[in-house]
Amino acid sequence: MRYRTATVRHGCGNPGRTGRGPAEAQTVRTEGTPVERADRADGRPYVLEVAGRAPTLDPTAFVAPTAVLAGAVRLAAAVSVWHHAVLRADLDTVDVGEGSNIQDGAVLHADPGFPVRIGERVTIGHNATVHGCHVEDDVLVGMGAIVLDGARIGPWCILAAGTVVPQHRHIPARSVVAGPAATIVRSATDEDLDAITTAAQVYRGLADLHGGNVAGVAR
Question: Cβ contacts of residue 182 below 8 Å, gap of 6+?
Fold first, then answer.
């Protein structure tokens, strides 16, 4: 799969246009040959350059048409970013590791000195907020969970839906966490580890399924 997405600079007016004619092609920086497109109106995702820093996308990554990538975002191989997700790296970097998925409505945003680092095979659930923190490999962040600046989530953890991880909190490996104070309720079982692995695998398959039908990705 190859991307055909746009680079758009921040400015006044419609962020999907640059003031030039709608048929004038623009490019996005990718790990490979840049591919051209004409205008946001074709249904492809927003990929925005901010202050000279543009997203970098592996050619095998999938980004849904309604997603937004802004600034110093890097997507590794086989990453999927789903509808209405926002990855905004205007103040520091956002880095998503191989095989991870950012589900519908999730927000990843970095603060100065607090980049977002997402490891490999991570699932970020629907409407989760991941802000200025480090999520290590093989983690499942549940729907609506919030992870705040300086937090670190160890490998093979599950954050239950609605969990809030405070600033600078470290969650040790193989923890199952829940609640507004990120309480560790138990250690992850083998069944939990299987669930984490399965979630990542399912979304890799879904990206392949959607990739053949969604504007912005061509085989």
Answer: 159, 163, 164, 165, 166, 169, 171
Please give the helix or strand (H or E) that residue 213 lies within, else none: none
d(CA 22, CA 70): 21
Map out the domains of the chain with their CATH numbers.
2-212 (2.160.10.10)
Cβ(145)–Cβ(164) below 8 Å: yes
Q: CB of 167 within 8 A of CB of 184?
A: no
Per DSSP, what are the bridge partners of residue 49?
9
Alpha-carbon span 84 to 126, nearest angstrom: 10
Q: Which of 71, 31, 78 is nearest to 205 (CA)?
A: 78
Could you report the per-residue pLDDT of 131-188, keeping only the tens digit for each? Answer: 999 999 999 999 999 999 999 999 999 999 999 999 999 999 999 999 999 999 999 9
